[in-house]
Design a protein that fits this description.
single chain, 195 residues, Tetracycline Repressor, domain 2, 10 helices, 0% strand, elongated
Length: 195
């Protein structure tokens, strides 16, 4: 008979998420996960099957606890005309806070897209679905802001906003000012387009 689990799975996943987010899948060692979670290798493997199983759980927690709460105002009805601006301003603030993991490490999934694990088909689909979810949410915000514009014009603005947000996530680790500038570009686009 196996031993009863004596830890809270969600807490372990959150602790592992921080390690994967800062270091990436490949650079995250099992000893680093042990230190972060307080569990030994056998407990981690028993609970999650492998380092990859723990990574998959961390990615799901990232989507559920980080990404979707921030996108929620853009996907509930009704979406107000300023919600997309509020999203970008909030993201900009997070990237400017030196103590935030977003400023330190950008986006877990954007980072993952540039790492070797992105060759895995499941990871590739997860990253692509995340980008599509981001684009859809921003598209709803752009539609609410510019409802009087034709669909092609709104799609162009939403595509540009998405590209600039992804760019900010991708560059914040190496060029924080450039990342903030990309988000300022989104805000400028949203203001210029509204006049």
């Amino acid at each position: 008979m196996g031993r009863a689990q004596t830890f809270e799975t969600a807490e372990v996943v959150r602790a592992a998420l921080g390690v994967f987010w800062r270091s990436g899948y490949e650079a995250t060692s099992v000893p680093a996960l042990e230190r972060a979670t307080g569990l030994n290798r056998s407990s981690l493997y028993h609970a999650f099957g492998s380092k990859r199983g723990l990574f998959d759980a961390a990615v799901q927690a990232y989507l559920d606890d980080v990404v979707r709460p921030r996108l929620r105002p853009l996907v509930v009805d009704p979406v107000g005309p300023d919600v997309v601006v509020d999203y970008v301003v909030g993201l900009r603030s997070a990237l400017l806070r030196a103590d935030s993991i977003q400023a330190d490490s950008g986006c877990l999934l954007v980072n993952t897209s540039g790492s070797p694990i992105s060759r895995d088909e499941t990871v590739r689909r997860t990253v692509a679905a995340y980008r599509a979810e981001l684009r859809s949410a921003l598209g709803r915000g752009v539609d609410a802001r510019f409802g009087d514009r034709d669909v092609a014009e709104r799609d162009r603005v939403a595509d540009l906003c998405t590209a600039l947000v992804v760019s900010a996530f991708a560059t914040v680790r190496v060029d924080p000012a450039g990342a903030v500038s990309a988000l300022d570009g989104v805000l400028g686009l949203l203001e210029a387009e509204s006049t």
